[in-house]
Specification:
By secondary structure, the protein is α+β, with helices and mostly antiparallel strands. Helix content is 17%, strand content 30%.
Amino acid sequence: MKKSTFTILGLILLVSLACQVTPDIQVNVANDSISVQSSSDAVATSVAATVQAGGPQQGNQPAEPAQPAQPEQQVQPAPTDPPQRAQPSLIEGHVCYPSEYIPAMTVYLENIQTQAAVEVPIPLNNGSFSQQVPPGEYVAYAWLPDFSGGGSYSQAVPCGLSVNCNDHSLIEFVVAPGSTVTGIEICDWYGGPGSI
């Protein structure tokens, strides 16, 4: 066989593979001539029969009729209760000042754990306050607008603020969820530097 014969055979196989058809090919080589016979009629008949039957079948089993698609059932999650938020709490108290009037000031309700302070403005001659706060442990103190003086709810307040009451440390008090804490009296204006 000549080199051109192999080239032609290779081209036939490449075309068959490129078309993804593997026809039944018979190649006869005689006296430097090549004859190719294909059973394309057999391939066409097989494709038509497959399309008519609804797809390829395996073995000798008949094709099953197509089942209608079942809609997917979606499972609904069980309803849940909304998350419980911490109920707001309330701190109520009074401010005192060692004078014939009560100056304007700011009360600070400081959460001991977070060190966040809620500021409560106190107008001139107003001796009471009420403030909503998150639950937690608190201390209470006040400053004049120019920070020239500060008062506190300290150990000296329940002692009676007499000259014998030397403990000016802040009183810590607990504010429970949804509770109202009363009796916070910011009246100790006698503590030394660092007592607030």
